[in-house]
Design brief:
This protein is an alpha/beta fold. The protein has ten helices and 15 strands. The strands form three sheets. Strands 7, 8, 9, 10, 11, 12, 13, 14 and 15 form a nine-stranded parallel β-sheet that branches. It has a four-stranded antiparallel β-sheet with strand order 2-3-1-4, with helices on one face. β2 (27-32) and β3 (37-42) form a beta hairpin. The structure holds phosphoenolpyruvate (PEP) and manganese (II) ion.
Length: 344
Amino acid sequence: MLVVMEAGAAPEQIEAVVRHIEKMGLKAHPIPGAHRTAIGITGHQRGKDPGIVETFPGVKEVIQVSQAYKLVSREAKPDDTIVSVGGVDVGGNGIIVVGGPCAVESLDQSRTIAEQIKLGGGQLFRGGAYKPRTSPYSFQGLGEPGLEILARVREEFDLPIVTEAIDETSLKLIEQYADCIQIGARNMQNFSLLKVAGKSRKPVLLKRGMSATLEELLLSAEYIMSEGNYNVMLCERGVRTFADHTRNTLDLSIVPAIKRITHLPILVDPSHGTGKRNKVLPMSRAAIAVGADGVLVEVHHKPEEALSDGPQAISPEVFEQLVREVDAIARVLGRTLQPALAAS
Ligand code: PEP
Ligand code: MN
């Protein structure tokens, strides 16, 4: 259920509705918008009728939300959500490029790549300190020392950090060190982890599971938002199909589909989406052309020595070209990299 307040509703009127909903044992989620505030109601409504608030002063209407997902839907919030990741806005009219290695391997490796990301015009730095690997014998990440490296990189290069949490323990540490918690494809439906992320005040980058439908992705985002964290970004990273010329099949058509029904930003990850470095640049161009709010790509200065995902890592030189080209494509659509690329 969604309570739509009048455009000029006073803060006390909004507060009165919220208090009433909470008194009924339900959860109220005020969603301020450009034109009006809406209040999403979640929780078990059996035997309760929050529709009574329709009679409260300042309330325009109470609507039943038809879809299973509520807080993520454009019905709840018609205008695009802009998520601030360490001061970088994701969503709205800007686009961003997130770059970095698959895994944090050493301070030296991370510094070298971060410097190139910064010089190349990237907005955010990524790198895993906790790696969910298919084989237990593969490199699992450096753990907390990896987070310390990321924190140093942020200070030195002024790049906010995105890094993956694989469980509650790593999430709690990431909250202390990083600017954004990534929930990876393998954990997209780890509902207890989503709830913990929902209690965090750090933005969450939620990647699509490798066989998840659009609705399943949105319901996972709903898990996070229903706990009170509204700073959620989605990420398409390819799904598993019969096609074997790429590691996964990048489903770019989810971008316009998502844009129709949710206000949340969506990024595209063509690195995991294709698994092949020669496809990362063309699919990045395509991602921006279909309306993604940015791309997330893996970059390595010595990909042949990378401890994970070397075959899909692009070089710093290609990264720089990618940033220039996606910015040019974004401009055709009336968007630009945020912050803008320095003129060269
Ligand atoms: C990653 O971004 O490093 C990663 C493991 O991605 P995914 O969860 O999409 O496989
Ligand atoms: Mn990777």
